[in-house]
Structure formats: structure tokens, C-alpha cells
Prior knowledge:
The protein is of the alpha+beta class.
Amino acid sequence: MLTWKSAYGTPEQIARDIVSTAMWLHTTFQEVWLWRGQANAAYGLIPGMHSRVLSSSHPSTETTASEATAHLLRTARAIGLHEYNGAKLPDLALLAHLQHYGAATPLLDVSTDPLIALWMAAFADPERPEDGDGMPGSLFGVLKPHEKNWITPLDARNYEGPSATVSSSLGDKVWWYQAPDVTERLRIQRGSFLLSPLVDPGVGTTSIPLATEPKTERNWIVERIKNRGKAGKPAKRTTDAFRIEIPASAKAPLRSLLIQRSGLTVATVYPIPWHRPYIEQFAKSYGRNRDLHLDI
């Protein structure tokens, strides 16, 4: 995936440059980017359920991912996690609910706010944010899907089954799902999700069908950032995604910068679900490291 890295010298300068560049990309061009921050640069754009499938002995296909997702939904419904504030959540809304507390689903978290995404990259763990300071992180920009590939917040289709379902309607496209505010975390983080069929990445960086490598050697994101403020046409976009590298040394000053300038705090970004604390226990037990053969 095309990557840009700040050329500044000190960690403090790099942190400021990353924030400045992300906000510039976010506000300057007609393209609309969705943002995802990851504390570990070793990982690409791979939803948790895709990770479970790809690391299992089952076929690395959308059929496997769909069946595993259906099992997760059945289990969550069996203990009443679909009941929320007097309503019964449809499958996609329930998946969004579970995803935001750590469950591995086919949804990939993204935010409309690059500052939130940078927060996720700099705070590896809400309780021990410095745990990720020994490894570089990533800020991904992903092109927002076309309006015809948006999914309504309360889409009532089953995720998987014999009739027309979410899984059977994915085709070979990436969809944008802006879930209802089923959690305080989702609302505060300006969160939404990308959803697509599983595409085995092999040695690639994503399991969703995004154009991540240009047909030429031209690195359009590096060229565009390098020519920031200069007259002339910006470099033409040739991929659907790019990556901004966050050096390990820049994470601590990035945290300080975000706290000082954004008004965000750990308690704000990660509010505790006092009304249903068991949601976290369930979701974490179905994380991306859970063996798939136990479920289907």
C-alpha cells in the first residue's frame, strides 16, 4: 500500500506534521476519506472476522466468513444482546454493537474524523496507552464508497440465510454502513464501518476489494503531500487507500498533542457501558484471536 512518512527529525515535529497532513488531506480535496488508526503497523485493513477465517483451517472464502458471522449473531441473540433500550436490533446494528466492544465481525471500523483515528493509533490500550510505543502504527485513509453503496442504519435484512441477505448482496464491492448510535462509543468516535466480501489477501495488506497498488510506480500520496501549498494540479489519485506511517517514537508526543488540542480524553473516547457491562465480556471472548473451529 502506498505510504507517506514525515521527513521531520524530532518526535514532536513528526507528531505535529502527521496531524497537520491528515487534516489537510481531510479538508482540501473533493475526495472524502474515511480514517482508520492502528497501533501496530504490521497489520493491514483486515476485519476481525476475516482474520479468524484466514488463520483457520476452513476455506478462506466469504461463505466461511458468513457462516461464522451467523453463529456469532445466533449466540449473541440467545443471551439477549440484541435487545437494546426497548428495541430489538437487526443483524447489522447488532454486529456494530458487538464490534465496538471488541468482537470480531466482518465490519471494519472507520471514522469520519482523522483525529479519532489518530487517537486509536496512539492509544494502544485505554488503560495502558504506552503499551504500543515500541512499534510503529498506521493511519489509513480509505476512499468513501459511492452513495449507491451505502447501507441504511436500520437495514433489517438477515446477515446470512436462504433468502436475500446482506452477505449474498455484497457482490465484489465495498459498502459503507453508518450504524445507528447503538453505543456511546460509536457516537463519540464518529464511527462507521466498511463491509465487503472476504478476498484472500495472500501477501497483500487488505482482505476487502480495494485498489491499493497503482498500475505504475508513481506514489501519488507522497507527491501530493510534497507539493502542498505549491501552485499547479495536485497528483491524481490512483488508489482507493493510502497509509501514513506513525513512528513508534512519535506516539507519546502524538498523545499529548491530541489531549491538548482535541479535547478528547480516554474516558470520553471509551465510555464504560455501565448499563450492560457483560457486553464487553462477551465481545472480547469472540475477538479476532478466537479459533474458528470452535464455532462452526
